[in-house]
């Protein structure tokens, strides 16, 4: 095909490949979908549930060719699914068996900043990090991934990531599919490019401004996966675990499915659709119904992003994701309840502060990320409204640590149904201006910041990130301890 050239300088003057990578019909679906094991845990004398996580290097065989050098948690690629209940105290021993520093961040979790696993909590090679907190948020599909300063993309692409499922009494009391790996299926969807020796090719950015767009899709590390369906209803916990690619999920026969949960947990009621778009870092739980004996493929369709962006690789592709093969007879004992979770309900009559964030070239509001700069403090238990603006021609999204927020407006309109639940990451399409309402928890430390950033990982790494603290009554913004940053 031809090539487009966007105007401008630097990253924006690169040539953009436009040949679409259409894999539909080219994937064999001959490998069973790997289901990440549930992490083992033990109860320590204080009553905390303790998980041991070993970050390690290894080799993983993805296809018939040679094995690939990879990183994983308690294995060679990705990590176990963590599972904890609301109200439970959990503790981790995170051992870094690599020969460089990394971190593990608990994306979507409300927790003290010092436990957050961001760039201020890097774990040196050979060291063990021991965060501990009490889970206090509704049932949700969260995830964990590395977050070292300037190296998040590289470390995630080597294989560090996993799912983190929070349970609560309310969700377990519903008759939704909830048998892990049987009718409740984690799906960590990622793309990779392999070089001639079957090694990950991180230099393979199809254009310089978004990062790696791979030409192979992996679900839980499986290339070309099939899943054998044994129940009429199946719940899929979809995670866009890619560095840059958007997915626009749907089934090959355009069958409807029900969105039941967004980043922060269950929706008040299911929303029926046949397409669902997820940007990097976002999660969605969907429930889909199968007929006995049928085969249907989950795909990613061209996104509904318009303009030049929407015509690029990674946005215009039609991709096979996973084949579902239904048994001749299907168990049928779950349902989608009429009422599930709670709708966002922040009090907009009492907004304490309004802020505006413009995402442009490698910076937010013109400031590139600096480890020692805390941009602002929010007052605990107050409601703030944040306007987030995409100021250049590229795809961004906006993620905030420690909080689930309410999307008030997308490009001046009421948010679409899939953005009406609790969210921690929201897409920011070129030219858009979105408004969010946020209320931060009681966890405070004026000297240890949380992050907010674009979750297109190359953008985050290049500086599209800032830092804030949550302040108690009468507290002022502190200073980042010098020792926290020696890069
Ligand atoms: Cu998913 Cu700051 O990260
Ligand atoms: Cu971005």
TrEMBL record:
Entry's Gene Ontology BP terms: cell division
Entry keyword set: Capsid protein, Cell cycle, Cell division, Metal-binding, Oxidoreductase, Virion
CDD domains documented for this protein: CuRO_1_CueO_FtsP, CuRO_2_CueO_FtsP, CuRO_3_CueO_FtsP
PROSITE patterns linked: MULTICOPPER_OXIDASE2 (PS00080)
Pfam families: Cu-oxidase_2, Cu-oxidase_3
GO MF, any single term: oxidoreductase activity
InterPro entries hit by this protein: Cu-oxidase-like_N, Cu-oxidase_C, Cu-oxidase_fam, Cu_oxidase_Cu_BS, Cupredoxin
Residue ranges annotated for the Plastocyanin-like domain, each copy included: 55-170, 358-470
Family from the record: Belongs to the multicopper oxidase family.
The protein's name in its UniProt record: Multicopper oxidase with three cupredoxin domains (Includes cell division protein FtsP and spore coat protein CotA)
Organism (species): Glycomyces harbinensis
Lineage: Bacteria, Bacillati, Actinomycetota, Actinomycetes, Glycomycetales
């Amino acid at each position: 095909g031809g090539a487009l050239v966007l105007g401008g300088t630097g990253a924006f003057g690169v040539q953009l490949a436009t040949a679409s990578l259409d894999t539909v019909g080219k994937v064999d679906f001959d490998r069973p979908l790997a289901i990440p094991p549930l992490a083992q845990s033990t109860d320590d004398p204080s009553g905390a549930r303790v998980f041991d996580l070993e970050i390690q290097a290894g080799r993983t065989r993805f296809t018939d060719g040679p094995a690939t050098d990879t990183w994983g948690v308690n294995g060679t690629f990705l990590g176990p699914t963590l599972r904890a209940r609301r109200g439970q105290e959990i503790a981790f021993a995170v051992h870094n068996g690599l020969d460089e520093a990394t971190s593990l961040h608990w994306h979507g979790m409300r927790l003290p900043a010092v436990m957050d696993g961001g760039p201020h909590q890097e774990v040196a090679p050979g060291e063990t990090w021991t965060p501990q907190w009490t889970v206090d948020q509704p049932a949700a599909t969260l995830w964990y991934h590395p977050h070292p300063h300037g190296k998040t993309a590289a470390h995630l692409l080597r294989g560090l990531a996993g799912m983190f499922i929070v349970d609560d009494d309310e969700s377990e009391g519903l008759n939704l599919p909830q048998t892990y790996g049987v009718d409740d299926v984690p799906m960590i969807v990622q793309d990779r490019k392999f070089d001639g020796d079957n090694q990950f090719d991180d230099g393979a950015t199809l254009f310089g401004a978004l990062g790696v767009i791979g030409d192979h899709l992996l679900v839980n590390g499986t290339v070309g996966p099939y899943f054998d369906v044994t129940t009429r209803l199946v719940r899929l916990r979809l995670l866009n675990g890619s560095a840059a690619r958007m997915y626009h999920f749907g089934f090959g026969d355009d069958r409807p499915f029900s969105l039941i949960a967004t980043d922060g947990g269950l929706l008040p009621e299911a929303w029926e659709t046949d397409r669902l778009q997820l940007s990097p870092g976002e999660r969605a739980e969907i429930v889909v119904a199968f007929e006995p004996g049928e085969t249907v493929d989950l795909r990613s369709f061209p996104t509904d992003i318009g303009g030049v962006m929407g015509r690029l690789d990674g946005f215009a592709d039609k991709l096979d994701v996973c084949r579902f093969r239904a048994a001749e007879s299907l168990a049928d004992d779950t349902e989608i309840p009429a009422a599930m979770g709670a709708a966002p309900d922040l009090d907009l009559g009492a907004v304490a502060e309004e802020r505006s964030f413009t995402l442009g070239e490698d910076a937010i509001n013109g400031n590139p990320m600096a480890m020692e700069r805390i941009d602002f403090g929010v007052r605990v238990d107050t409601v703030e409204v944040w306007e987030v603006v995409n100021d250049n021609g590229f795809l961004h999204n906006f993620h905030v640590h420690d909080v689930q927020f309410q999307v008030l407006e997308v490009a001046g309109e009421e948010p679409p149904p899939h953005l009406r639940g609790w969210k921690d990451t929201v897409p920011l399409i070129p030219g858009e201006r979105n408004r969010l309402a946020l209320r931060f928890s009681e966890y405070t430390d004026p000297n240890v910041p949380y992050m907010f950033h674009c979750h297109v990982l190359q953008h985050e790494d290049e500086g599209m990130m800032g830092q804030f603290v949550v302040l108690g009554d009468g507290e002022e913004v502190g200073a980042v301890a010098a020792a926290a940053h020696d890069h």
